[in-house]
UniProtKB/TrEMBL annotation, chains A, B:
Co-factor requirement: Mn(2+); Mg(2+)
Protein name per UniProt: D-malate dehydrogenase (decarboxylating)
Domain Isopropylmalate dehydrogenase-like: 5-347
Organism expressing this protein natively: Streptomonospora nanhaiensis
Gene3D superfamilies, per the entry: Isopropylmalate Dehydrogenase (3.40.718.10)
Sorted UniProt keywords: Manganese, Metal-binding, NAD, Oxidoreductase
Zinc in keyword set: no
Matches recorded under NCBIfam families: PRK08194.1, TTC
Family: Belongs to the isocitrate and isopropylmalate dehydrogenases family.
Amino acid sequence: MKHYRIATIPGDGIGKEVLPAARAVLDRVGRHHGLSLSYDEFDWSCERYLAEGSMMPEDGLDRIRHHDSVLLGAVGRPGVPDHVSLWGLLIPIRRGFRQYVNLRPITVLEGVPSPVSRALPGEVDLVVVRENNEGEYSQVGGRIFEGTPEEAVVQESVFTRRGVERVLEYAFDLAGRRGGRLTSATKSNGIVHTMPFWDELVAERAAEHPDVSWDQEHIDALAAKIVLDPARFDVIVGSNLFGDILSDLAAAVAGGIGVAPSANLNPEREFPSMFEPVHGSAPDIAGRGLANPLGAIWSASMMLDHLGHAEAGAQVMDAVRGVLASSPVRTADLGGTAGTDEFTGEVLSRLP
Amino acid sequence: MKHYRIATIPGDGIGKEVLPAARAVLDRVGRHHGLSLSYDEFDWSCERYLAEGSMMPEDGLDRIRHHDSVLLGAVGRPGVPDHVSLWGLLIPIRRGFRQYVNLRPITVLEGVPSPVSRALPGEVDLVVVRENNEGEYSQVGGRIFEGTPEEAVVQESVFTRRGVERVLEYAFDLAGRRGGRLTSATKSNGIVHTMPFWDELVAERAAEHPDVSWDQEHIDALAAKIVLDPARFDVIVGSNLFGDILSDLAAAVAGGIGVAPSANLNPEREFPSMFEPVHGSAPDIAGRGLANPLGAIWSASMMLDHLGHAEAGAQVMDAVRGVLASSPVRTADLGGTAGTDEFTGEVLSRLP
Ligand SMILES: CC(C)[C@H](C(=O)O)[C@@H](O)C(=O)O
Ligand SMILES: CC(C)[C@H](C(=O)O)[C@@H](O)C(=O)O
């Protein structure tokens, strides 16, 4: 019997509703595969910030450093500036644990309508590999002449060879194991220091991966093409900001943010990886049992995969696909009337 | 009789095919409105760069400084790095002439199919106002430890109070004259120096424009919403990079980049403004008479508007709408078989 200790951080709003759904699914499929999963729950959140002045304790990372994985619901709450919740919790974990790959699979599932008429189930199946540790998200920069007409701010993007190489290596490897195609998101025509550097490293990595056919697209044109012809993409790799934008966009093309999962991976497994749905805390529907748990359940399936239990992960996704393709049970964001529990129950009923 | 001197820069590829189409339309409608238009053509292009080592002469800006407008086709050519054509021609004009507003109207036209099923003619009619002079497009930055494992690059984004205020002022004004709604593109949760500053200035400007209802969205969520529900937007204002991405994306939602126009405006009219289609030089179809001139013709209509001839501009767009809505004549990118000339002829035939 394999034992795993999972740190769970439900966070705010619907995070607290989708996380139990993911756990229920994990427990069921785990039992079938002889996995023993135990959970330690942490109340790190905007609520905690309002009560105690910080999103997590100072030694937060140390408390979860030896867990096998982190499962996160969602963070964010009206009244707490978004950058507080991000830089007080998400970014320290992503960086502190060298989770330099943010993996976002985007698949049009049968039974989930897409706003894009050409985005058909079985045709759109891509993965966005987002650099998750450096780039445009940086603390470096500041403000000058505050409060005067000459006021100005600067913000530094920082890209390192090591940081870019490792995420590209991951993306080329992944493309080699998937459809053999990689698209790099760039903007080397407008952003003249970091993006030409990114392009150079892509070309270098490509030379080491002759099995992968690759191209690059400027981010503006790429965003357009994801809408015009989503089926043409296999693996898309982008910087922290570009990956963030493209993955939300592609998730919308695949039927909405409520469905999309993500994995923050430390591929070397020196530190725990973190799994979280792409959606936010959705204060407008929080507390009413209406949240779509699919993003969280899909993220849990990615966690099983990462822990080495690909078959268990696939069973979870088969159950989800089954519900969507052959039952009317779905949450309101997908046009249904089911609540979180009903949908989760339907998934559970299709698991061995 | 009003006389206007227009500087034309056909540029590369299909730029040289769509510019004559725009001129033909301008001449026809100008004659009807008693406008005398004369053109000075400049061969500034990647072709010139390959032959003479620069995209334009050193005193380029001085040669067109006293023209009433600039009409540009497209620049870019395989073999010339994109940043050369951009920083050697487009950016110097945009900055040198303080064209700090990049205006990109996005309308779903009847007869132009959209990839997004909910994007219907008469419902989607938005304008992206892009900051066009500063922000993420900057020369500031560089590389350290080149060629070593420690290699790193930094890129500085620079936002000034003056630069942000003036484009926001334009955007709020425009929203006041249109549907009264403004959406600001931000990413203040991830990009912690420039974007919170941007948000502050939006809130300041908003207080001066109580007639406009406004909100802000993070760029990732906004990209998704433009696909999920494009009809909800009126004026979207964004930084240089965000405006670039969102306008290409919204143009795709409205049926493709081949249709989209843009205006680089110096609202104070101290310098000429520049009008250019959003599409590139399309080397794959260049020289074959297949290019869609609609983006260039629409840009010419925006030029008439800017020069104070709104009625003439509207007549051009009425003619274009007429062709698309009630004839099968359209270019290959819109599913038709017409060439550049045939489409242009059809537009001309509907002008007074
Ligand atoms: C040529 C290119 C760099 C340019 C830009 O990003 O400004 C183009 O995409 C545009 O939108 O005009
Ligand atoms: C919370 C937010 C800032 C975050 C990000 O941009 O990384 C989110 O959009 C995501 O994609 O995980």
